Amino acid sequence: MRVVLADDQPAICAGFAALLDAQDDLEVVGTAHDGAALVALVEQSAPDLALVDVRMPVLDGIAATRRITAEHATRVLVLTTFDLDAYVFDAIRAGASGFLLKDVTAERLVEAVRLVGEGSMLLGPRVTRRLVEDFGVRRSEPRAALAGHRLTPRETEVLLLLGQGWSNAEIADSLVVGAETVKSHVAEVLRKLALRDRVQAVVFCYERGLVRPGEA
Fold first, then answer.
1. pLDDT score recorded for residue 137
2. Least confident of 40-49, 85-94, 207-216
3. Architecture of domain 136-215
4. Longest dimension (CA), the chain
5. Phi, psi angles (nearest 5°) of residue 27
6. Could you tell me the residue ranges of all domains in the chain?
7. In CATH, what class is 2-122?
8. Is the Cβ–Cβ distance between 207 and 215 less than 8 Å?
9. What's the rounded Cα separation, in Å, for the pair 35 and 76?
């Protein structure tokens, strides 16, 4: 997995880069210290994942995330100092696939990069609850909320579970199907709804009232 990092604190950037580059399955292909340099780096190297600090000069992490996810397949994992930093929610809406605290352990950082790079989302429970509160949703009937999207009944089931933050393994257990079958359903749901990733699927469900706060 090819990774780039962006942080305006060189010591933090270098430390994270050294840690990730030491993993056999990860390769750090570049670092940047501001958002504009990060966008240029992504355009040049087309990495699988970008680890991005929220607060950076020239172009902040949110604006950089929005540009990266709009123009590239690169997934974005946001770094933040506080787990309820208001910028985090803007970053998720801009297309980030998750967030991570800067004081994370080395093991957790590596695990998070792998998870997000492979297509999972990484949202803490407090952030998930806050997203639900922000949208202020009420429960809707899936058939009405999904009219025109042509999802099959099974794909609708998968979407609702995605909206609750379930992993592929959890969905497979619940629906009593294989992991590859779930992966195929998830890909088809995202394609039909024109969603980039699982985080967008969660937001899609919140916006249309398909998920109650207590279910997230």
1. 47
2. 207-216
3. 3-Layer(aba) Sandwich (3.40)
4. 51
5. -135, 120
6. 2-122, 136-215
7. alpha beta
8. no
9. 13
Tell me, what DSSP letter sits at residue 209? T
Contact 162, 135 (CB under 8 A): no
pTM beyond 0.70, yes or no: no
- Rounded distance between C-alpha atoms, residue 120 and residue 77, angstroms: 11
DSSP calls for 26-95: -EEEEEESSHHHHHHHHHHH--SEEEEESS-SSS-HHHHHHHHHHH-S-EEEEEESSTT-HHHHHHHHTT
* Cα–Cα separations (whole angstroms), residue 111 to 103, 114, 148: 14, 5, 38
Q: Is the dihedral of CA 37, 89, 208, 164 positive or negative?
A: positive
Query: Could you tell me if 77 and 53 are in contact, meaning their C-beta atoms sit under 8 angstroms apart?
Result: no
For position 131, what pLDDT does the model report? Answer: 60
Q: Which of 121, 145, 112, 118 is nearest to 202 (CA)?
A: 121
Instruction: Report the DSSP beta bridge partners of residue 32.
Output: 6
Positive or negative, the CA dihedral 170, 203, 65, 188 is positive
Q: How far apart are CA 181 and CA 46, in angstroms?
A: 29
- Rounded distance between C-alpha atoms, residue 58 and residue 54, angstroms: 12
